[in-house]
Amino acid sequence: MTTDQIQANLIQASHQIDMDDIVREGFPTLREVANEVSLPLSDEDIRLGEKMMQFLHNSQDPIIAEKMGLRGGVGLAGNQLGLMKKVIAVLVPNEPEHDEAGQVIPPKEAYKLQEIMYNAKIVSHSVQDAALETGEGCLSVDQEIPGFVVRHARVTVEYVNKAGEKKKIRLKNFESMCVQHEIDHTNGIMFYDHIDLKEPWAIKDGMLVIE
Ligand SMILES: [Zn+2]
User: Fold this and answer.
1) 138 assigned to a ligand binding site
2) Is there a contact between 49 and 99 (Cβ–Cβ < 8 Å)?
3) Distance in Å, CA 102 to ligand 1 centroid
4) Kindly report the CA angle at 161 between 177 and 159, in degrees rounded to 5?
5) Is the Cβ–Cβ distance between 85 and 160 less than 8 Å?
6) C-beta of residue 181 within 8 angstroms of C-beta of residue 75
7) CB atoms < 10 A from the CB of 63, how many?
8) pLDDT category, 96, cuts 50, 70, 90?
9) Domains of the chain (ranges, CATH numbers)
10) What are phi and psi of 32, to 5 degrees?
């Protein structure tokens, strides 16, 4: 199948992206630099982004995820669908809150970050590094690869949103790690490329560990 055919299948109205659409380690697009999406955005590329976001919503819904056999995900990149296009979707939920009686209640805003990004790139970053306390996983990697995935603590990212507007956002904490993971995919980089294999859990000077 050509990548155009792959995309045409993915964006059919009746199709919902599932684990069978996600390519795994060894598939060449995971190690290639994707092409920038042409602007203004085509209807096909807008629909692709929406399908990717729908996948993330489905994957975080326990009932739908079980029915469809989805692993939970907070981000997805075009390369993971066998496409060579710089499109990513990120969906980072907020933690539940507690009411005055200490009961767990849903957060006021469901998501910390919910965005489809075309041609996302890091335009500046902190000197400080950071890593998630528990390491990272990836929908394209079926095994656990333990270790700190050392990234920039804070990044400024430029991208085009699905309305075609140019955006520039600053990110820190989990959202920063998540968006860097997805931008890496569009450049053929896997999360474990950032793990020090000799000392996977070494905390480097000044590195922030994000809970
Ligand atoms: Zn990934």
Assistant:
1) yes
2) no
3) 35
4) 55
5) no
6) yes
7) 8
8) confident
9) 3-210 (3.90.45.10)
10) -115, 155
